[in-house]
Amino acid sequence: MVDKGTVGIDGSCGGDTASGLVPYRAAPVASGCSMTAYAPAPTDSSARPLGWFAGLDGLRAIAAFLIVFHHAGFSSGLTFRSDLGGLLLTRMDIGVSIFFVLSGFLLYRPFVTAQFEGRPAPATGPFWIRRLVRIYPGYWVAFAVQLVLGAVTVLGFVGFLASFGLVHVYHPSRAISGLTQSWSLATELGFYLLLPWIAAVARRFSEGRSINRQAQRLLVACVVLALGSVVFRLLAAEVSPYPNNSWGNVSRLWVTSYFDVFAAGMALAIVSAWADHRHLVRNYMANIARRVWLWYAAAVVLFWFVSTQLGLERGLFLASPRLELARQTIYLLVGVALVLPIVFGPHERSLILKTLSTPVLSYLGLVSYGIYLWHQAFLTWTHDLFGWGDFEGDFIVLVIVGSLGSVAAAAASHRLVEAPLTAMVKTRLAARRTKADA
Asked: By CB atoms within 10 Å of each CB, which of 31, 76, 203, 423 scores lowest?
C-alpha cells in the first residue's frame, strides 16, 4: 500500500510507512555534549516521541477542496459577481500554500531527524526517485486523457513537451497551459530537487553542536531561505514588471518564489524533531497548541483579512508586488496555524483534530492528488454539457460535479496507477539497499 503521510500537492510521503500516518521517531539517548560527524547527539531522556501525525491527510483533503471551490467560482463567474463571496472564493487558492507548508514540514523532517540522531541524511538518489515516481505517472495519465478528450490544450509540440515534463512554468507564454493547475506541481518538483542540497548546507552550518544550538541554527537557515525568497520576488518584479507573459509574472510560480512557504513548514519540522529530544521544547509547544480552536479561529480571521482588507485583485489579475508579498506571507501564516496544532495539539481532546482524522477525510486526503489533477476537467465538461460559456453557470452544480467526478477519477488513479507504482519502487529501492548492505 502506498505511503501517504507526507502531504504535498502530489500526496507524496516523507517517511516510508504503510499506515497512512507518519510517526515521530524516538531519538537515541546519548551522553556528553559534543558531536562528531555522525555520533548520536545528546538527548533528553525525559522527552518522548510526540505521537503520530494524525489529521494531516484530513487537512490535505480540505486544501484540495478549497482549490475546487476556487476554480468553480472562477469558471462560473461567481468570483466576479458576488461581493463577499467572490472575494473569499478568489483567495481559496490558499489551498496551494497549505500544501507547500505540509511538503516543507514532512519532506524535511526525515533530514532534520537524522541530523539530531547523528545518522546520515536520507540518500538523495532514492529520495528523488520516490518523488518523481509519485508525481509523474498520475499526472501523465490525467494529462493524456484530458488532452485527448479536449479538456486541456497545449501550445504546439514544444508546449506539449514542456507540459509533459512539468517545466512549462519556466516560459512566460506557456506557464499556464495544459493542466492549468499543474504549475504548482512544477514548483513542488523544484523543491524536491533542491531539498537534499538545502538540507546538506543547513546541516553543515549547524552540526557539531548541542541539539539546542543545532535547532536554533537550522531555524536561522529557514529565515535566511524565506528572506531570500522575498528578495527574489521583489527583484524579479523590479526587473520585469507584472503584465501577462513577462518573466516577472511567470517567476512568481517558481520554487524560488515559494521558499518562504516551504521554509515555514521546514521550521515546524525542526521544532517537532527538537521536541522529541528536549522535553522543555515539547512541553512548551504542547502548551501553546492546547487550544486548537484558537489556532483555527486565527486561521479563519487571517483568511478573512487577506480576502477583504488588502484590496487584492480577483481572478488572474495581480496587485502590486508588495501587496502580493503580503498576501503570500498571510497565506503561509494560515498554513502554519493549521498544521501546528495537528503536530503538537491534544488529539484526544480536540474535536477539530478528531474530525480531521476521520476515515472519510483521511481517504479524501489520500486521493487528493487525483482530485487536484482532475477537478478542472470535470468543471470544463460540465460547462460543455450545459452549454455554459466562460464565467457562466451554476456554482453549486459545478462544485458538486467537480467534486464527485474528481473524487471518482482520483480513486481510480490511486488504485490503478499511483499506489502500485509507488509500492513497486519502494520494494525495489529496499531490495537494492539490502543488497548494498549485504
From this structure: 31
- What are the C-alpha distances in Å from 338 to residues 286, 302, 327? 15, 11, 17
Helix axis angle, 292-308 relative to 321-344, nearest 10°? 170
Cβ-Cβ contacts under 8 Å for 94 (sequence gap 6 or more): 66, 303, 306, 331, 334, 335
Domain boundaries, the chain: 56-128+259-437
The amino acid occupying position 184 is S
How many residues would you count in the chain?
A: 438
pLDDT in tens, 295-337: 999 999 999 999 999 999 888 888 888 999 999 999 999 999 9
Rg, the chain, Cα only:
21
H-helix or E-strand spanning residue 186: helix 183-206
Contact in structure between 51 and 79 (CB atoms under 8 Å): no
Q: Which residue's C-alpha cell is 501525525?
A: 53
Whether the per-residue pLDDT at 438 is higher than 60: the answer is: yes
Q: Report d(CA 382, CA 400) in Å as an integer.
A: 10
pLDDT of residue 48: 40
Question: Are 203 and 217 a contacting pair, CB within 8 Å?
Answer: no
Contacts of 300 by beta carbon, 8 Å cutoff, 6+ apart: none
Cell triple for 319? 496587485
Instruction: Measure the CA–CA gap between 5 and 199, rounded to whole angstroms.
Output: 20
**pLDDT tens digits, residue range 191-232?**
999 999 999 999 999 988 999 999 999 999 999 999 999 999
